[in-house]
Amino acid sequence: MLKNRDFRVAMVFISPAILFFLLFWAAPMALAVYYSLTDWQVGQDETWAGLANYTRLLSDPEFHTAVLSSLTIVGIVMAASLAIALGVALVLVDPRIRAGRLWRVAVIVPVVTDWVATGLVFQLFFLPNQGVLASLGIDALTNVGWTTDASLAPWAIAIFVIWKQTGLYAIFFLAGLKGIPADVMEAARVDGANPWQAFWRIRWPMMRPITVFVVVLAFVTTLGLFEPVYLLTGGGPAGATRTLPLFLFENFFTFGNSGYASAAGIYFLVLSLLFTFVASRILKDSHES
């Protein structure tokens, strides 16, 4: 009787989360899968198309470019932001750092600021000849077409995203570092381990679960970003930054190819799940070895 009562109480508390999941994740996902198998155009009735949208995407050069653009920006952001975040966390976890709480607040401020507001600031920052760099007198960077050069535009977006998201990853890494028992680190120091050995042999292995979470979070979050691309470049120049979210947006809202956009969204989901699985396996295998 007590177990049944506990079950009912538990269901009352978790039912909002279950309802939210069903309404805002499961149901839209089921609709996306259905519409991806049709040739639905906005304002028209859909007709069954089977796997035609998926096969068309595999041969669509614009989709290939969007995937490559997304992965390029994701690669830059992940390599830089995770390295910086881990370094910041290692500094903040040191008890000798003064005003540690103030520094933690400073680290998280970019994360909680609005994408659009900060995007407008970065637009001014990257303006050639009249932007922030020009006003600072940095001549070497004044005439650089950050958002108009196809080779530099992905870097401009990546710089914006790195500034915006690194603090969040640093906080996660900091939580992982603080979760390591102090007596373990003290024993390592007593045994003569230097800071690098203590990190590589003790801290890093014990942080593998949080590392998997942060790596997957960074990939999925960066891959799905729409605001920084739309604000800084709009997908240009010459499609150099036309990422997957922008590809979906244009096909659905601009061209009205809703079924085609839904199929691209399913590929988007599969890519995220595949990376999550591979990253988890790699980090797990390296931990076990």
TrEMBL record:
Membrane-spanning segments: 12-35, 66-93, 105-126, 152-175, 210-232, 252-279
Major location category of this protein: membrane
Entry keyword annotation includes Transport: yes
Alphabetically ordered keywords of this record: Cell membrane, Membrane, Transmembrane, Transmembrane helix, Transport
Cross-referenced CDD domains: TM_PBP2
Keyword Glycosyltransferase: no
Gene3D superfamilies registered for this protein in UniProt: MetI-like
PROSITE patterns for this protein: ABC_TM1 (PS50928)
Membrane topology recorded in Swiss-Prot or TrEMBL: Multi-pass membrane protein
Superkingdom per UniProt: Bacteria
InterPro entries hit by this protein: ABC_transporter_permease, MetI-like, MetI-like_sf
Domain ABC transmembrane type-1: 67-279
Location in the cell: Cell membrane
Pfam families to which the protein is assigned, alphabetical: BPD_transp_1
Family stated for the protein in its record: Belongs to the binding-protein-dependent transport system permease family.
Protein name: Carbohydrate ABC transporter permease
